[in-house]
Amino acid sequence: MEIRHSVERGATQLSWLDSHHSFSFGEYHDSAHMSFGALRVINEDEIAPGGGFATHGHRDMEILTWVLDGTLAHRDSLGNGSLIRQGDLQRMTAGTGIRHSEFNASDAEPVHLLQIWIIPEVASLAPGYEQRAFALEDRIGRLHLIASRDGRQGSVTVHQDADLYVASLAAGGSVAHSLAPERRAWLQVARGTIRVNGAALIAGDGAAFEHSRDIGIVADDGPAEILLFDLA
Q1: Where are the beta strands (DSSP E) in the chain?
Q2: How far is CA 113 from the centre of its chain?
Q3: Phi and psi for 123 in degrees, rounded to 5?
């Protein structure tokens, strides 16, 4: 297990944006942290009231947005307009090209989110969009599948051999995951403090698993929330 501490991440600070980058992104470049398998970006963003990203484009990327607090307003060149709230997961397949904007929907409260980029298995896919809500009760004390290649168990579909789980844990709560041979995992702590195979992690920390088969997670303080990527 290799830990990526929150304080080691890159950062972008603007008048309306506080963003932290687990992997190289924008003007932040770290040759030791370019990606992890097909996982290319994990950005933790806090967007001030009224702030946001003006219309911009993407290609050949699976873009997932998981809202932790607040509401994000989205519009794109496919004609989608939506509000993404806490517990919602949005997936955009950029494919041959998509343009979109993202703004804090509130004039009073910040929006806090994780934006995740996954490299697709093939290039030049048709652009696509999907959004689903995942109830808190379905992920308390368990790893709940929210994204997968085959869209099973009501998860959103990503065009890559990747499963994304989320778990919400009360103090002392625990979950475990076993990796199949030849697979790897990335764990991202979204909130709270936890112990992973005995190591202490706080919100913003990540951990890479390439040779460990068993991953044990215990929350020190509640509530805690983790995202677990099981990757080819």
Answers
A1: 2-4, 10-13, 17-21, 39-47, 52-58, 62-69, 71-76, 81-85, 88-93, 98-104, 111-118, 128-133, 144-148, 156-157, 162-169, 174-178, 184-196, 199-202, 206-209, 214-231
A2: 8
A3: -90, 165
- pLDDT tens string, the chain, 232 residues long: the values are 999 999 999 999 999 999 999 999 999 999 999 999 999 999 999 999 999 999 999 999 999 999 999 999 999 999 999 999 999 999 999 999 999 999 999 999 999 999 999 999 999 999 999 999 999 999 999 999 999 999 999 999 999 999 999 999 999 999 999 999 999 999 999 999 999 999 999 999 999 999 889 999 999 988 999 999 999 9
Strands 156-157 and 144-148: parallel
Place of tokens 């910040």: 110
Strand partners, 68: none
Query: Which amino acid, residue 232?
Result: A
β-pairing, 71-76 vs 128-133, is unpaired
Selection from 66, 79, 58, 55 nearest residue 123 by Cα: 58
Residue with tokens 């709230």: 85
